[in-house]
Amino acid sequence: MTTTSTVTITPPLLQQQTPALELSLDPRIHNLTKHGFLFGKKLAASMSPLLHDVVYQGLGLNWGQLRLDSDDMDLFLNLVKDPKFYGASVTMPNKVAIIPHLDYLTPECRDVGACNTLFLRDDPSTPGRRLLCGANTDVIGVRESFVQNVSNADVYENRPAMVVGGGGAARSAVYALHKYLKATKIYLVNRDPSEVDAVMKECRERGYGDKLVYVESVEQAEQLEGPGAIVACIPDFAPVTESEKTVRRIIEVMLGKEHKGAMLEMCYNPSPFTALGAIAEKEGWQVILGTEAMIWQGIEQDKYWTGLEASKLPVAQVKEAIAARLAELSKA
């Protein structure tokens, strides 16, 4: 049996910290064989604890992930010392702040510059010491969304790709397209040129920005070779400003080109069925729902935490549970 609960850290509680603070966070923590955390702010809508609890139930593990609504790094680093702690999902605003405190980074974590997964490994040089290791499974979520759902990789491999947006998800998408999905170029489309400049600068500094092309206008889009993979990382809002309308028109131009590929629509809240997804389907594109990226990044996390391969994890049950939760939310 697993437990999902919320731990909200408020200033008064912080003033009362003790080395054994984890004992006072939630009495149900004692009923778990192992526990982890979802560490970040504004966690109420996150489906991460649900996803992982379904995995643990399917494996017969008495594990659970607790919401730790905080950005207090000292508090978190104290909590991870508990011998029953197995790892954590790390979300905003802690994805970058946690990196200096880690002993090891996976290549994805290092190159993207953000950690969304903390896992533990034994220190070979110091018996009894556990190393804090960081991974970025958001990258794997993007990769597996295409690999698991597109039957013919020729649709997107060795062709240009396109990323819409300029935030953290866009950076993970660029890295996945560059490293794993064999994109020849990566078009960046975004309403804010300064965000695009920041993405391009960071990616180039980290060694994977040489393929990036900023698409600024409809006229430029009309002259470019069509993409085979698109990752849309923007909210499902109707365009209002002129810059937003330009972005929408550029996307429509790309979708309307002769080659039809696959689009991963990362937005899934409040619904994975978005306006961009509808446009893409109408133009003959395969649309991959954003819940796929969320699920596969979570499965990758549980690979780190349980030591099991994805084939041994209850992926089908996870998909059913996430679909059911979305159906509930759509009725609310």
UniProtKB/TrEMBL annotation:
EC number of this enzyme? 1.1.1.24
* Keyword Oxidoreductase listed: yes
What's a BP term from Gene Ontology annotated to this protein?
A: shikimate metabolic process
Position of the signal peptide: none
InterPro entries associated with the record: Aminoacid_DH-like_N_sf, NAD(P)-bd_dom_sf, Shikimate_DH-bd_N, Shikimate_DH_fam
According to the UniProt entry, its GO molecular function terms are: quinate 3-dehydrogenase (NAD+) activity; shikimate 3-dehydrogenase (NADP+) activity
User: Which branch of life, at top level?
Assistant: Eukaryota
> What keyword terms does UniProt attach to this protein?
NAD, Oxidoreductase, Quinate metabolism
The Shikimate dehydrogenase substrate binding N-terminal domain sits at 38-118
Q: Which Pfam families match?
A: Shikimate_dh_N
- Root EC class: oxidoreductase
Tell me the pathway: Aromatic compound metabolism; 3,4-dihydroxybenzoate biosynthesis; 3-dehydroquinate from D-quinate (NAD(+) route): step 1/1
> Cross-referenced CDD domains, in alphabetical order?
NAD_bind_Shikimate_DH
- This chain's protein is named Quinate dehydrogenase
